[in-house]
Specification:
177 residues, rod-shaped, Helicase, Ruva Protein, domain 3, 6 helices
């Protein structure tokens, strides 16, 4: 048993870091330096990557243009790169693409969300907390007798029933003495 524990410990110590290193994302390859300064290619690549990551792909439903693997998406990414290199702004590129494709199919994949969407993850905790407070307050009131309803008034009794009730009450009073 001791040998198994030692083997597991050594396996965790030696195998754990290698698995972690194997899963670490690789650094992107360095872009070749531009003769004019080096940062122009980086800026173009950054703008193209930003645009293609923000735009929904008209060719692959549910994917961005960056993650779509179709040949048409590849060609469109190349055209966007040419437009960026030509000096067009992001808005001009977006307008050109929306005019070319259906406006509904070619939109921003992740539009800006309103401020209150940040509260959505906390709603279950808020509702649960309010429910706990409500149940606790109701329980403590009941223990103090605040929530107990007043007894209903006795219905009016007439005739033979009234005489019988009077006899029973008199009999109970005599037995208690």
């Amino acid at each position: 048993m001791r040998h198994i524990a030692a083997a597991l410990l050594w396996g965790a110590l030696l195998g754990g870091p290698t698995v972690t290193w194997a899963q670490a994302p690789a650094a992107p390859p360095a872009a070749p330096a531009d003769k004019a300064g080096g940062s122009n290619l980086d800026e173009v690549a950054h703008r193209v990557a930003k645009l293609t990551d923000e735009l929904k792909s008209p060719f692959c439903p549910g994917k961005t243009l960056q993650t779509c693997t179709s040949y048409q998406a590849f060609e469109l990414r190349r055209e966007i790169k040419q437009m960026v290199e030509a000096g067009k702004s992001d808005d001009e590129i977006l307008t050109t693409l929306q005019a070319r494709f259906d406006h509904d199919d070619f939109t921003i994949a992740n539009p800006v969300q309103p401020w209150y969407t940040a509260l959505v993850p906390f709603l279950p905790f808020l509702v649960g907390g309010l429910l706990v407070i409500w149940v606790f307050r109701r329980w403590t009131r009941r223990r103090r007798g605040e929530d107990d309803p007043a007894p209903a008034p006795a219905p009016a009794i007439a005739g033979e029933d009234a005489e019988r009730l009077a006899r029973l009450r008199a009999q109970v009073a005599r037995e208690e003495e």
